[in-house]
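tool=predict chain=A
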Amino acid sequence: MLSQERLRELLEYDCITGVWTWLQPPNTRIRKGSVAGTIQKNGYRYITIDKLPRKASRLAFLYMNGELPEHEVDHIDRNPLNDAWINLRSCDSSQNKINRRLRKDNSSGYKGVHFNKRKSKWVARVWKNSKEIVVGSFDNLEDAVNARTIAAKNLYENFECEET
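tool=predict ok
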C-alpha cells in the first residue's frame, strides 16, 4: 500500500496547478524535475509508482490528506487533466455521474430529460446507485427540466454540478 510518506519521497505535487514532478525518477530515462505520468485514452493522467499505474487525481488526495478517497474523485470543471486541488472533490459513483457532460445523443439539451415519442411526453429521470428513478412525464420540456432539477438537488443533497 502506497503511503503519503513514500509518495512525497518520489513526487512533488503543485496543488495550485495540479502538476506532478519527479523528485526521485523511477528510471534513468526520466529526469528529476520532469512532469510525471502519461495521459491515457480515457483522458486521465496516470503515474506509475512501484510498478502500479495510479490516477493522478487520486494521488492528490493521498498527498494532501494522507489517505486515498473512499470512492471516486470528481473533477469539478469536468477536465480530467486539471488536477489542481481546488478542482477535485471526493464523491460516490452517483455524484460523479451527475457531473458528466451531456451525451452526444441527447436531444433535449438537458441532463436526465428525453422525449418519449410513443407517449408524446417529456420524461424526467435521475439515477442513484445505478438505479433509475423516473421523476415523471410532462407535456412540456420546461416542466420536465424543473422537476428533474428539483429531484436531483434533493437526491444529491449539497453536491453541486453543472446541469448542461
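The two ends are 38 Å apart (CA to CA). Strands lie at 11-13, 20-22, 38-39, 45-49, 52-55, 72-75, 88-91, 113-116, 121-128, 131-138.
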